[in-house]
Every structure is written in C-alpha cells, then in structure tokens.
Amino acid sequence: QVQLVESGGGLVQAGGSLRLSCAASGRTFTNYHLGWFRQPPGKERELVGGITWSGGSTYYADSVKGRFTISRDNAKNTVYLQMNSLKPEDTAVYYCAAGAGGAYTHWGQGAQVTVSS
C-alpha cells in the first residue's frame, strides 16, 4: 500500500502561484506513476496531469498546460504540482494519486485551492 498526503493548498489571488506537495509512504515510491486530479465545486473529478515513475515524462490537461508543472523527487518520496498564473476556474480540491499499472489505485485526502478574482 501507498499512503499519500497532500499539503500546500490555500487561498491565492488570480495571477498568483501555489505549490502543492504530495508525500508518499509505504511501498516503494519509485514503482508508481503519479498524477494530480482536481474536483471543482459541483463538478466531477478531472485529470490535471501526471508524471512517469522515472520523472522523464509528464502530461497535462489542455486547461493547465503552460501554467502548471509536475515534478517528483524519488529520494524524498514526494511529487509536486507547481501552479502559476492561477485563475478563478482553477478553484478545486486537488488530489494526488499513484498507480503501478494502467489505473490510479491510491489517492490522497485532497487539498483545497481557492483562487479569488
């Protein structure tokens, strides 16, 4: 099992930046690909982006491409989501997730990000 704990959420003005962290414990962190998801108020959870186990490849939803960056530090068992040029529509609960195969099987508890206009 992998346990995931997000941190770094909060309130920020539009145009500002935040960095979310997701610390993992349990099984070998390096075996998992990692992703970030978000759930805006009243909407379904959506993929923000992900990163391969080696960190050599990342992918992003079109809505955040060019503004968000995902990185990982396997030595610290941590994955990061750097969010720049934030918009009010980025307001959501953000979740990190881990998977060893084709699906994400482990989830964090979520971190609230609120962007004011």
What's the short version?
With 117 residues, the chain is mostly beta strands.
Please tell me about this protein's structure.
- With 117 residues, this protein is mostly beta strands.
- It has no helices and eleven strands.
- The strands form two sheets. Strands 2, 4, 5, 6, 9, 10 and 11 form a seven-stranded mixed beta sheet that branches. Strands 1-3-8-7 form a four-stranded antiparallel beta sheet, with no helix packed on it.
- Strand 7 (68-73) and strand 8 (78-83) form a beta hairpin.
- The mean pLDDT is 93.
Distance from N terminus to C terminus (CA atoms, Å) equals: 40 Å
Give the helix level as a range of percent. Answer: under 10%
Largest sheet entry:
7 strands, mixed
Strand content: over 45%
The helix count comes to 0
**Which blocks of ≥5 consecutive residues have pLDDT under 50?**
none
Secondary structure category: mainly beta
Q: Helix and strand succession? A: EEEEEEEEEEE
Shape: globular
Global mean pLDDT:
93
Q: How many strand units?
A: 11
Using the CA coordinates, give the radius of gyration: 13 Å
